[in-house]
Amino acid sequence: MSETVERHEFGAEVGRLLDLVVHALYSDREIFLRELVANAADAVDRRRFEALTGGVPGVPEGSAVRVVPDKAARTLTVTDPGIGMSKADMAENLGTIARSGTRAFTQSLADAKPGDRPSLIGQFGVGFYSAFMVAERVEVTSRKAGSDETWTWSSEGRGDYTLARAERAEPGTDIVLHVKADAEEFLEPIRLRTIIRKWADHITVPITIAEDGKDEPANEGTALWRKPKSEISAESYTEFYRHLGHNFDEPWATLHWHAEGTVEFTALLFIPGMKPFQVVEGERESRVRLHVRRMFITDEAALLPPWLRFVQGVVDTEDLPLNVSREMLQATPVLARIRKAVTNRVLSDLKTRAKEAEEYAKFWENFGPVLKEGIYEDTEHRKDLAGLLRFRSSAVEGWTSLADYVSRMKEGQEAIYVLSGDSAEALAKSPQLEGFRARGVEVLLLSDSIDAFWPERLGSFEEKPIRSVTQGSADLSKIAGGDAAQGEAADLSKLLPLLKDALKEDVSEVRATDRLVDSAVVLAAPEFGPDLHMQRLLQRAGRDFGSLNPVLEINPRHPLVRSLAAKAEAGDVAEAAGLLLDLARVQDGDTPRDPAAFARRVAEALATSLG
């Protein structure tokens, strides 16, 4: 082997992915061309931007992405004059797929039905790897703008690839697909033109197809957002949305408008109809594309706040110079005004659509957790966002809003009650709800990870404080519906001090409560400080909250508590105290302090009761 040729192994997961792509997606083969053309256009846009800021040579006049079929050689070449790739770029971008969630993708692809596979590709971003659906070998020759080195990446998609020095006169990339015998349809210019018109007609970079010795235009290259809405069909909007975000679903909402006044711009934005892969866990920056006079500038202008990062689209303005730098973007007041206007428009549209409960529920199930982040971090829009929130409830089916909750509040009820945890289904069965449910008091069930943080920031809604049912001592006696407690209450004057002394290392207080019906005990948080769910999160993070130990609340009417109160005269309740605390922890979805000791106590109690 020549010294300039290096052989590298794909990671095990990438090898499995390539195998699935090659053998499981034949019905969706045409997607490969859209992926390659879109990548080429992005490379051209990147070079244009870098050239505007003086970093690299500009794109030659009249340049285009060229698609060249060669039936005799059975090759299909996609050539672009874009930013190009260095050797390191090739190893990172073509030799790995770390950013695409390989393990999750391969499992989903293996499990999916054939009809579901196109959406999986769009969701996980297979991109370049889709070329192996039609090619038995792929060669990528690239020279990065600003560099004299050229390298060729080559692979047959069977677990390894090579990197070798090469020659290319100008910066850019050539991708050569050695087409499989059963994929020769993709060497026909008319077939290629149909695919490009379907998937890439709105790419503003010219795309040509070589035919009979000439490069024939293959895309219209129209900036769709510049057209009047009356001239754009729903199908055209959908095609552009799919091209823009490499999606396969229908947009849930399309927002298209032209703003005039102190700043002038045109915006075409989409709210997706399905949740993209890692929408919450991935990067938190908005990727709406900024164009100046139709030319792409950057998708890093943060045109929307992080809590609207699921919105995709284009904003095009005449009020910025073409050679605007990233530093200028951070400082210019023009962009600040655009950001404010675009954010307010999206919020206004969401408010309107929220009136259609069934349709809005689809949006909320996809992006509700992301929207809640705005309550936590955005003081300016907190009030508007509060009206858009939806929740599961202990009292009604489906989703409900804070406004609807307030309209159903009981006479004498002063607060909006919430309960946070990991699962709405588990929360609905929590003993924390017993007293509230018995009095007909509704509790909102919060099960998203962000729910541990935002309620404190919002504080109240329509002058009603938001209060965790686990935090402090809820005074239910003021609420119309009477006392839900049943049975005679035990005298706990002697039992409570004994329990407190036995559990002094584990609880901050032991007290009687009227918010239990069927359970003997329940945990509560101190009135000031984090609620129980937040305390558990802090524990998982290794944080010690010391004095914030929970409160153990005792139901004085429960048979178990009445029996313990009767035996309090003897003074030996240490064993029972530990069992009560562990019962309360288990009921709250937590684990006993000592699972083995807990199991032993339960076994002993059963043996005694059955003896």
From TrEMBL:
Reply yes or no: does the keyword Chaperone apply.
yes
Per UniProt, the keywords (alphabetical) are: ATP-binding, Chaperone, Cytoplasm, Nucleotide-binding, Stress response
Q: Does the keyword Chaperone apply?
A: yes
Q: Indicate where this protein is primarily found.
A: cytoplasm
Which intervals of the chain are annotated as region C?
537-611
Domain called Histidine kinase/HSP90-like ATPase: residue spans = 28-183
Where does the UniProt annotation locate this protein? Cytoplasm
Spell out the InterPro entries in the cross-references.
HATPase_C_sf, HATPase_dom, Heat_shock_protein_90_CS, HSP90_C, Hsp90_fam, Hsp90_N, Ribosomal_Su5_D2-typ_SF
Show the PROSITE patterns listed in the entry. Answer: HSP90
User: Looking at the record, which segments are called A?
Assistant: 1-326
What is the protein's known function? Answer: Molecular chaperone. Has ATPase activity.
What family name appears in the similarity comment? Belongs to the heat shock protein 90 family.
Q: Which PANTHER family match?
A: HEAT SHOCK PROTEIN 90 FAMILY MEMBER
* Subunit structure, as described in the record: Homodimer.
What is the name of this protein?
Answer: Chaperone protein HtpG
